[in-house]
Specification:
By secondary structure, this protein is an alpha/beta fold. It has helices at 11-26, 32-37, 59-69, 98-128, 147-156, 174-180, 183-193, 207-215, 228-236, 254-258, 269-272, and strands spanning 43-50, 54-55, 74-77, 84-85, 90-97, 135-138, 160-161, 170-172, 200-204, 220-224, 242-246, 264-266, 279-285, 288-292. The protein has a seven-stranded parallel beta sheet. Strands 3-5-1-13-14 form a five-stranded antiparallel beta sheet, covered by helices on one side. A two-stranded antiparallel sheet has the order 2-4.
Length: 293
Amino acid sequence: MRKPYLPVLPAPLVRNAVEAALLEDLGQAGDVTSLATIGPDVRASATMNVRQDGYIAGMDVARAAFAALDTGTVFEALVADGDRVQAGQDIARITGSGRSVMGAERVALNFMMHMSGIATHTARFVAQLEGTGAKVVCTRKTTPGLRAFEKYAVRCGGGTSHRYGLDDAVLIKDNHIAVCGGVAEAMERALGYVGHLMAVEIEVDTLEQYYEALDAGASIVLLDNMDTDTLRQAVKTAGGAVLEASGNVDLDTVRAIGETGVNYISTSKITMAAGTLDIGLDIKLGDQSNELE
């Protein structure tokens, strides 16, 4: 099987997010500290490095941050998104206007630390599932405004994504079933509403609901908060249906869930519980060396 292409963040999405972040940081007066202390013609050379082992995500976002303040900035990436890195490793070199490098460094680092932290945490889940055949999937539980970046970071860590929003797939949840009046009724309405290219998944809490969903034509079923014995029973009777397990998923439980034979395991932990990866920028202005943290 051919290896899939690496994920790509759309350039307009990156540009808009970076500009919003720079506006938030620079305000109306700009970086007054740098404007007051660094001459307009001073050049700066900087090295971005990691202080922890992990996985990288967000290199193009960092590049865009520096370029937004100085189109003449040279950004040399020494690693690529998805690469595993070790503490102390240099990951990029930046050369440009001293004022611009100082003005953009926090936005660049914030994106990279956050995204690389998610990639690194995702990779831990992926490692736990090695050999099971199950894939770890992120959910819509993301930071508002950063969903595309966080889901991209998950992919850089070896995970994959559930739907991006409410508009790209149908997921019938327990509240939909309650309002609609039942599993079979909800499935019938959903299948009659969408086109043939849109996926329809239904969430069930019990084996009884699960069997009802299969009888109603469900081809993708989310098994919510089921113990491993119940998951194994569902797998035995899946018939060709794609099964996703969710609920009570963390690094201590994900392996056992994967060993039941489900296809996917969705969890908010890889986005909502991920820490940051410690990344810094060592900058040199003239003969002065300083470390930005």
